[in-house]
């Protein structure tokens, strides 16, 4: 199993029929969501790392739009869209359930995940494109973080999901892992320890979670990656393992 | 219960605690999705029609972003986002289940609903904004319709959900109800009877469904509404009942 990201001209690795296989990228936060669910449930799966700036032709035979994450199932069927894959895994594999059992609590968590997508889109603009860190972007991120800070205060904790991380924790985690990067790109506000006390504590606890640790990338490597991405030559292979 | 759309300056109708209440608009396809689920499950609910071009102030106390559909639950909690509400209702009320029980079939249907959002966005551009019915828009809609035509061929039918309409049928229906409008705004391609034989037949069967009939609006009224919307004074009250 290659630990390097495969590019155009590569051969698609042969599947291990009967085993899940995730088409992914080490720096893709949407893919990381699916890793977190698979790892929280301690499922066995193969990975195929894909170079997103020079996609292999065979990717389109797996995922019609060339999108990752794409999860190949035991029978050869393929699912895509991170949230749809996450829900599928939670419904299919009952160990370590991630969504609340109560339909109302589940729906409310899904609304929060949906709301978080505004933060996601804004972070993407600030970190990876030339969009300036203007007041509007700043407001969107601060409003988003405040919603989640308040939410943690209302809940029993220590995680959004309760005693252990649940679906909401894992679905927002990839961008929270990258929150410190905002400081380095001109933001003073991101995860301020006084303003977002509960979120900062939550982040510390998430860092110790076994599933989170499996895909955790240190801030220094995130910075290097973002710099390479901004320079137009994303170094997907800059971390080993 | 007012059958007219309420505007700024109106008083919010008092809730019937213990009964579902849907904040909706007769011409909003996203709201229609929630009506279809409620009606398919034969749930009792009150409705509050909202004027989207002159929203009542009290709407923001119900739905923080002023978005509809918003479903007020028996306990006063409020859910929004049409797909999240639809999933909630299907999980909470087991009569007439709409999603497939099998997690894989359910995930595949959710991917199709997600794909359909491209058709939705393009129809919106063509019908309600000044966006021209150009080749790109045309291709997006034709590709979308072809995906669904093929999908119907692969399935047992007569509906996407099987013997009766399921979640996928209802979630795409509001835009299919409006498909004929594309012809009137310059498109010759929409739901061509030879090219999309199965979809056209499916549409005929959907027209007979009891839940669909409850919110069905005739094409003439849809045209009048679109003309009023394009003129800048949307006539939400142009149909009675």
TrEMBL record, chains A, B:
Q: What does UniProt give as GO cellular component?
A: cytoplasm
Record keywords, A-Z: Oxidoreductase
Domain GST C-terminal span(s) in chain numbering: 102-225
Please give the coiled-coil regions recorded for this protein: none
Which InterPro entries is this protein grouped with?
Glutathione-S-Trfase_C-like (IPR010987), Glutathione-S-Trfase_C_sf (IPR036282), Glutathione_S-Trfase (IPR040079), Glutathione_S-Trfase_N (IPR004045), GST_omega (IPR005442), GST_Omega/HSP26 (IPR050983), Thioredoxin-like_sf (IPR036249)
Which part of the chain is the GST N-terminal domain? 18-97
Gene Ontology molecular function, alphabetical:
glutathione dehydrogenase (ascorbate) activity; glutathione transferase activity
Keyword check for Cytoplasm = no
Q: Keyword Oxidoreductase on this protein?
A: yes
- Any one GO BP annotation for this protein: glutathione metabolic process
In the record, the note on similarity to other proteins reads: Belongs to the GST superfamily. Omega family.
Q: Which PANTHER family does the entry mention? A: GLUTATHIONE S-TRANSFERASE OMEGA, PTHR43968
The name of this protein is: Glutathione S-transferase, N-terminal domain
The organism is: Popillia japonica (Japanese beetle)
From which lineage does this chain's organism come?
Eukaryota, Metazoa, Ecdysozoa, Arthropoda, Hexapoda
């Amino acid at each position: 199993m290659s630990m390097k990201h495969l590019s155009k001209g590569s051969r698609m690795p042969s599947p291990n029929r009967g085993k899940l296989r995730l088409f992914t990228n080490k720096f893709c936060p949407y893919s990381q969501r699916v890793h977190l669910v698979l790892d929280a449930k301690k499922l066995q799966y193969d990975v195929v790392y894909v170079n997103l700036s020079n996609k292999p032709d065979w990717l389109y035979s797996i995922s019609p739009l060339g999108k990752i994450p794409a999860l190949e199932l035991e029978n050869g069927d393929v699912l895509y869209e991170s949230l749809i894959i996450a829900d599928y895994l939670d419904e299919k594999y009952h160990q370590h359930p991630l969504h609340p059992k109560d339909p109302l609590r589940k729906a409310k968590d899904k609304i929060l995940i949906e709301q978080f997508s505004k933060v996601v889109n804004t972070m993407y603009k600030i970190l990876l494109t030339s969009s300036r860190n203007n007041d509007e972007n700043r407001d969107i991120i601060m409003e988003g973080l405040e919603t989640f800070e308040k939410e943690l205060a209302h809940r029993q904790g220590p995680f959004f999901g309760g005693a252990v991380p649940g679906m909401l924790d894992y679905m927002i985690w990839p961008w929270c892992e990258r929150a410190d990067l905002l400081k380095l790109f001109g933001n003073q506000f991101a995860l301020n320890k006084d303003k977002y006390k509960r979120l900062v504590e939550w982040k510390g606890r998430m860092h110790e979670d076994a599933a989170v640790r499996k895909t955790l990338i240190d801030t220094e490597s995130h910075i290097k990656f973002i710099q390479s991405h901004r320079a137009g030559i994303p170094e997907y292979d800059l971390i080993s393992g």
